[in-house]
Structure formats: C-alpha cells, structure tokens
Amino acid sequence: MVKKAQDWVIANLKDYEYVPQDGNPEFFEATAKLLFGTQDEKELKRVVSAQTLSGSGAIKIVGEVLAKQLKFRKVALSNPTWANHNQMFADMG
User: 91 is in which domain, residue-wise?
Assistant: First the structure.
C-alpha cells in the first residue's frame, strides 16, 4: 500500500517542495466550495483560510483570534472533546 501511494506521488506531483507558509490556495478554494456549496467568486472571497501544523495548532490560532481580535470570552466545546481543548481555550482567555 505504501509503495502504491509513493508511486502515485512520484507520477502525479511536480516536485516535493513544501507548500508555501500561507498554505495551498487551490486546496483552500476547493475546501471553501465544498463546505459552503458555492462557486460564486464574490462569496468565496469572504472565506478566510489558514494552514496549521495540526488540530491543536488550528485551535490555538482560532482561540487567539477569538480572544484577542474579537474579544470573545466564551466558546462552546463538544462533549466529549479532546482532553487538552478545555485547557487550551482557558489558557487563551
């Protein structure tokens, strides 16, 4: 299975470079179209995307934006959630 995946990567990717620091714009656009069900360029320009290191990295970015930029003081978390989520949001205020 790994060999098959490796062969696909070699056959289909132009190079092995990392994606840019601000992420892969084609991936962001395709994700926005899938999530929001629109092809309208004007609507898609309202969507903001960010690449993160991991799920916890994404929570850190969202938490900082909510707390520092938007001044949110409460968030709703699913139950159950990962063990570190409550503490991460608490640490961000």
Answer: 52-93
